[in-house]
Amino acid sequence: MLIKSRLLVLIIFLFCNFHVIAKDYYVHPKLGSDSNNGLTKESAFKTLSQVSKIKLQPGDTVLLASNQLFESGISLINQSGTKNNPIIITTISWDASETILPAIIDFKGETHGILLEDCSFIKVSNLKLTANGFNNPSILQKMRCGILVKKTSSTNMQHIVIENITINDIYYENYGFVRGENEVKTANGTQKYGWGIRVINDTNSLIDDIKILSCSISNVSHTGIKLTGNEKNISNIEISNNTIQKTGGPGIQMSGVENVYVSNNTVSHSGSHDDSRKWGRGSGLWTWGSSKVLIEKNKFLYANGPGDSAGAHIDFNCDNIVLQYNISAYNAGGFCEILGNNYNCSYRYNISVNDGHRVKGIDGAFQEGKILWLSGYQGTKKKRKGPVNSYIYNNTIYCDSSIVAKIAIDNTSRGILIANNIFYLEGDSKAVLGDQYKPDSASGDSAKNVFFKNNLFLKKENWPKNTGLMDVAPIIGNPEFRNKGGIEAKDYTPENFNLVHYKGINIDLLPQDTSGLLQSLKLEKDILGNLIGVNPSLGAIEPVTGND
């Protein structure tokens, strides 16, 4: 009887674990055949369409031949690995002697290079994706995406990893297509575009745990990485160590998401218009309707466009968005932009270099560039409502003499802290109206609940009087930056040690704010990793003796 019981247990164990016996599927566009079973290099599949037909099991791996060109894309629908046995799509060397180079997927004319629809526990890595236009137009297609993660069912999706992917030249239209001049004036564009990586959830269920790591995205006609959720139904996201450049729209954009970590990315030339198929407008990063987002240690460079196009901006209906330890340089729209109905957001310990150089009315610009903008805009049909409890402290802001530094603070703002910043403005400065489609009111009323104190200005006139706000205890002087105009953090190390060292004040909660910032108001280190003392210094860098 005991032997039979043990045999039954063994049979049940083997049956329950049979599905985790993983398979490798090989694909080679020259040496393979779709009549093969794909289970060895000698019996490899030829096309990716064959991969899309397989019901993959946990632990299965799809292996694409190194440096080979594959036409068409991969579609995984209702496929799922497990936490310990994810499904993997990646590149493999066919010959042990060759250097592994990413397999190339050219999905020209198709909607996606890789589709992950209602899938969980999937990892995609070490591939190159491109799709420059179409051969035959399709009226059914609405866009073209390098990687599209999409939710359509009522069950949750979880754990998608996209790592070490190169995406370049993603255009819906063929070369030579010219967009109408008013397209760039629409909120997000109305026509068909190419996108890098998109995550879309328009259901009531959840996409949870997305990682986009060490990817390179360039020359897409709209956004590099875009997350589109609803009521925080995309959550627990990490976007780290990516390089995004020359996107026609924003570099990174997220809507309706929660619990996001964005770190160590370099975003340059967002809003590019060097190809007539590109949108031609975009901040390096922006959030909308999102909650609990930490954006740190990134570089946002050379954003272009007639509106918005800041280094990174917080659009309306957000809360707990914190930008810290970032470099923001030469962005047309500006440095700090917080729109309406935002709560408990912060820019702190960032360095801004020549941001906000755009001039309204020149080269089609319909908004002024601004180094600091608190707006009341929360939608075209809603009453103006400025941000609530905005903490702006210990930033270093440099503008050379060629720039008129502009500032706009909506009088419906409630709760503003501006302290310990360095405003090194070599040229003139002036107050302007915020103008997100409709100008802010110039009623003469001032923002409420303001703490504006202890900022360093190069000159007394650096802060325009007609903003409605004035520093009650300004400090005037030259911090003597090591290499002003550069785009490395260390370039803005103050060499006038005594002017800035320990001259900051500790940051406390604004009156009527019971929450503060999720990450705490007090930081332990500055942008270079130097320890912050009992009293902070002025600006983003603690001028430690001997600091390189």
TrEMBL record:
It comes from the Bacteria. InterPro entries: Beta_helix, PbH1, Pectin_lyas_fold, Pectin_lyase_fold/virulence. Residues 196-351 form the Right handed beta helix domain. SUPFAM superfamilies: Pectin lyase-like (SSF51126). This is Right-handed parallel beta-helix repeat-containing protein. It comes from Gaetbulibacter aquiaggeris.
